[in-house]
Design a protein that fits this description.
The structure holds 2 protein chains of 2 kinds. Chain A is mainly beta. Chain A is about 0% helix and about 55% strand. Chain A is built from no helices and 11 strands. Chain A has strands spanning about 5, 10-15, 20-25, 30-35, 45-50, 55, 65-70, 75-80, 85-95, 105, 110-114. In chain A, strands 2, 4, 5, 6, 9, 10 and 11 form a 7-stranded mixed sheet that branches. A 4-stranded antiparallel sheet of chain A has the order 1-3-8-7, with no helix packed on it. Chain A is globular and about 40 Å long. In chain A, about 35% of the residues are buried. By secondary structure, chain B is mainly β. In chain B, about 0% of the residues lie in helices and about 60% in strands. Chain B has strands at about 5, 10-15, 20-25, 30-40, 45-50, 55-60, 60-65, 70-75, 85-90, 100, 105-110. Chain B starts with a strand and ends with a strand. Classes of the chains: A mainly beta, B mainly beta. The interface between A and B is medium-sized, with 30 and 27 residues.
Chain lengths: ~110, ~110
């Protein structure tokens, strides 16, 4: 148990559906992240939030829409996805500081787009 | 361009057979290098942070070392429960937003 929870753990959706992924961290951190992990590829950073403000959008298509209402919760809203968006979506949190900051990951949401 | 390359892609060991995993990196000023372990269907589990060349850290059968160009994860007398994918990531000095750049991982299998 890392202190970062994600729901749902598994999600199957059609290309026309709208769904949301939820992440909650219980570590008192001030930064939260969304990553995408596809088979045989390195983890890809999607979004970064520091103190609830989005600081990075790594050229992610607009069909992915993040929301960070407070420093403990992070959402990823999904709409009109494509089959190639099927992947493991990971949430992470960290305490942002001057030196390197370890990120702690949740268990992920396995997304399948039909 | 900042980059991380891990080798080998896959490694099969017999129980007790020590070995090393390599992480080569290129970054415009290193803020930190991180090692993670990932089991199938789970999120990465943090293992170590290294900040400067010459630094070493140990945890049970694992030891991580760092030079200016690469990091090694040494596994001494591995057990089957050490089987997992090991990920290396770097964070650049210029990046204050916490962005990690990951390698593709080394899949380790330890047979009894």
């Amino acid at each position: 148990e890392t202190g970062v929870t994600q729901t749902p753990r598994h999600l199957v959706m059609g290309m026309t559906n709208k769904k949301s992924l939820k992440c909650e961290q219980h570590l008192g951190h001030n930064a939260m992240y969304w990553y995408k992990q596809s088979a045989k590829k390195p983890l890809e950073l999607m979004f970064v939030y520091n103190f609830k403000e989005q600081t990075e959008n790594n050229s992610v298509p607009s069909r992915f829409s993040p929301e960070c209402p407070n420093s403990s919760h992070l959402f990823l809203h999904l709409h009109t996805l494509q089959p190639e968006d099927s992947a493991l979506y990971l949430c992470a949190s960290s305490q942002e500081r001057a030196i390197g900051n370890e990120q702690f990951f949740g268990p992920g949401t396995r997304l399948t787009v039909l | 361009e900042d980059q991380v390359t891990q080798s080998p892609e896959a490694l099969r060991l017999q129980e007790g057979e020590s070995s090393s995993l390599n992480c080569s990196y290129t970054v415009s000023g290193l803020r930190g290098l991180f090692w993670y372990r990932q089991d199938p269907g789970k999120g990465p589990e943090f293992l170590f942070t290294l900040y400067s060349a010459g630094e070493e850290k140990e945890k049970e059968r694992l030891k991580a070392t760092l030079t200016k160009k690469e990091s090694f994860l040494h596994i001494t007398a591995p057990k089957p429960e050490d089987s997992a994918t090991y990920l290396c990531a770097v964070q650049a000095l210029y990046n204050q937003g916490g962005k990690l750049i990951f390698g593709q991982g080394t899949e380790l299998s330890v047979k009894p």
